[in-house]
């Protein structure tokens, strides 16, 4: 990973977040360096939707070159449902699949507009990717598939529902 100039960090550490932001800004300022590949969802899901993007990737400036990636499950499913299959079962399924077919679309570069904050820019990029891949846009974080929903989030949604009713 050191030869490819990876930037590793612990998401829960605020100091790491600031250091990563600084390293990414330095990297994109150096035109001699290769572009950085970032997966802003932070996780993979079931190939039907695009989940909330982490805003940090969109705060550092620079040009975003969006890529839509969607697996074709006809010959083998690359998605690992960790709640349903063990890692060993998943690896066996992938290795014995006839083929793993992946459609990749390179979309036009995008730049943050002057009046746009990082969240709105991330949502705009996410919508373009989802539209090209024929996927739906989801407003929540992919981490929800591994963690329990916070009580405060549940209460907020319940209040909104009560106001509607």
Automatic annotation (TrEMBL):
* UniProt-annotated location(s): Endoplasmic reticulum membrane
GO MF terms here are: glycerol-3-phosphate O-acyltransferase activity
Sequence ranges assigned to domain Phospholipid/glycerol acyltransferase in this UniProt record = 1-70
Its UniProt pathway annotation is:
Phospholipid metabolism; CDP-diacylglycerol biosynthesis; CDP-diacylglycerol from sn-glycerol 3-phosphate: step 1/3; Glycerolipid metabolism; triacylglycerol biosynthesis; Lipid metabolism
Q: Which residues form a coiled coil?
A: none
Q: What is its main location?
A: endoplasmic reticulum
Q: GO cellular component terms?
A: endoplasmic reticulum membrane
Q: Please give, as recorded in its UniProt entry, the membrane topology of this protein.
A: Multi-pass membrane protein
This protein's record includes keyword Lipid metabolism: yes
Q: Which keywords fit this entry according to its UniProt record?
A: Acyltransferase, Endoplasmic reticulum, Lipid biosynthesis, Lipid metabolism, Membrane, Phospholipid biosynthesis, Phospholipid metabolism, Transferase, Transmembrane, Transmembrane helix
Q: Which GO terms describe its biological process?
A: phospholipid biosynthetic process; triglyceride biosynthetic process
This protein's superkingdom?
Eukaryota
UniProt record similarity statement: Belongs to the 1-acyl-sn-glycerol-3-phosphate acyltransferase family.
Protein name according to UniProt: GPAT3 acyltransferase
This protein's species is Heliornis fulica (sungrebe)
